[in-house]
Amino acid sequence: MRFSESWLREWVNPCIDTQTLADQLSMAGLEVDAVAPAAAAFSGVVVGLVLEVAPHPDAGKLHVCMVDLGQAAPLTIVCGAANVAAGMRVPVATIGAVMPGDFKIKRAKLRGVESFGMICSASELGLAETSSGILPLPADAPVGADFRAWLGLDDACIEVDLTPDRGDCLSIAGLAWEVAAINDCPLTPVVVEPVAPASDDRFPVSLEAPEHCPRYACRTIRGIDPAAVTPLWMRERLRRGGIRAISPVVDVTNYVLLELGQPMHGFDLAHLEGEIRVRLAAPRERLHLLNGETIELRPDTLVIADAVRPVALAGIMGGAASAVESETRDILLESAFFAPAGISGKARSYGLHTDSSHRFERGVDPELQVRALERATRLLVAIVGGEPGPVVDMTAADHLPRRAPLTLRAARCAQVLGLELPPETIAGILKRLGMDLVPVAGGWQVTPPSGRFDLVHEVDLIADVGRIHGYDRIPVSHASSAAATRARPEAAFDLDRARLALVDRGFQEVITYSFVSPELQARIEPEVKGLALANPISAELSVMRPSLWPGLLHTARYNQARQQERVRIFETGLRFRPGPEGLCQEAAIGGLVIGPLDPEQWGAPTRPVDFFALKADVEALLALSGDLPGFSFVPDQHPALHPGQSARIDYAGRPVGRLGMLHPALAADLDLTGDAFLFELEQAALTTGVLPRFTPISRYPAIRRDLAIVVDEGVAYADIAGCIRAGAGDLLRELVLFDVYVGENIEVGRKSLALGLILQVSSQTLTDEVVDEAVGRVLTRLESDFGARLRD
After folding, report:
1. What is 308-363 written as a DSSP string?
2. CA-CA 20 to 30 A from 87: which of 97, 290, 554, 569?
3. What are the pLDDT digits (tens) for 495-551?
């Protein structure tokens, strides 16, 4: 919520500056997001009175104005605004004035006529984005007064980010209660006196869904002046609250929304038929909204209807057919209480979010409706005139929220806060927050205010005591307990070390949402049904992720859209997969690489990343477990991966991860440029490592024999390596693949593998006979198992 500091100080005015006020609100749980000036910096602008307006002798669209600035003689100012007229009071930038943007007003001559200043529009003063003419001021604006001081523009606009349970602070009134309680200073709320009816004109109301709307108040106002305009002071307060002024009826309802926190709506009485019916929508009913959209209503949606059709989406937005227009003479003002459970989520389900829905979803004071209606009536009648009818207040008392008293124990308060406050201090804080207290043994029976929906348990009252007293005033205490130290198992997998290993290899860690798009998730793993959220942030984030890949792909697309060609990212976190006992939360590590293998440089040509480069990164990660040979990479298929570049990672006979290239069709749908490679591993497969064991270094020399064999292209190197180790036995210390060749002098469908066999034992120097025998056994097995032959 955004509000004007000067407006708040009309209700409560502690002797603190703006920054201290912002700090107090943040420490009280009402986090201040921003503090901004109410207007751009300018100086030298005063209130002027236009005495005469004459056409410019040499320009058809310019006017020569005589303007009284309260000086000895009026000034001549050339103005091009079409709405300038004699008798207007206007803001005038005098010679030497500095306008927003550091623009200085100088003496000028326009088409031969000297001009000694500038009559300003709202946009030129930074008070509006656009303006159709100069800014007219009220008739009581003092001529010659400094415009900035007169309009109170040396003000601050404070924006607070409230948690969903503090809907009571979405108004000046709610914030004023908090500030008064924090500073223990007087509160001066606006006085709301009932407006005496000028007629007996009542509009009938029926509550057909009292569980969703237990209170609905309204009144008619007939004969308003359609030509009236919202006064400048009200437009300014709306602007500083982040709301654009539209028309008197809309502006007054928005003003009461900011002031008291009660959403309201005005209907054109001429477009209502018979009565107001607060009911659930009928099947297939449609409503054309104020924003121009037409929606088909669901049967669980509460609507405001007349005798014929729906006229508003209850608690969210009015309908266009009954909207107040420039010719409207008679209106119906409504002020209702809608149960939060009946409104929550409805706006988002229709793709809407309004100030009204934001408040009704969090809870509006159920005792505020008539007071807000009286306040709006008095303001509106003062602006547009008219004859108000009596207030019609329909209430289903059985369905209104009832605030049951809560028991607060002084001992429990001291235990939770770690601070023993005097009973009178606790009672004083709660009373300043508007609570009713009845002393009981050991504490109080506390009845919260009707608008405090967040006070449900005793601990909620204790939290209020703590934050108003000041968390910074609670002394730091250290718990005294026996500290038991436990040595971390030496073989345990260290997740932080794994993160650093990936960072060392050029990866950057990302954190993405745990909920993803159901469409993208279905493309990645169509056989896995993700858990759908009951109340998602948006339709694009409505399923709990069964994999880390959707978030990584979204991040890669975001970076590529911002000209980041080389992306190497990883994430650690939970994935949510269905299991035999319900939803299973698994910790996983996932990564993605796309773009050049190495950063751009002069010493080597640019080479795109490939499957084997990512496999090396994954192997470096698996090596941290101390049992890299225990992991195997098995060719496999996956819906999101390229059929020819996809592998399953097995450990101890079960799959623990995957890696491969993103399927080209999916990459094209995601607008990814280049080949993207992904991996994902269960953290559980890495958590129990294997300790290294000492092996003495042989004192005898090693012998290397190189072999170049030709095998079918479909034969995997892992199978070849296993065969060689089995044939060479204990003599083989290391096996190196140093060349793979396909092409000239090699049959189609075959490949050449160049292998280095390093043989060594610790007991003796190997003789040529022993080595030749071992190599012979290897060749025999390779030929029998794979049809391999030595390359010529």
Report:
1. SSEEEETTTEEBSTTB--TT---EEEEEEE--HHHHTTHHHHTT---HHHHHHHH-
2. 97
3. 888 999 999 999 999 999 999 998 998 899 888 888 888 878 787 888 999 999 999
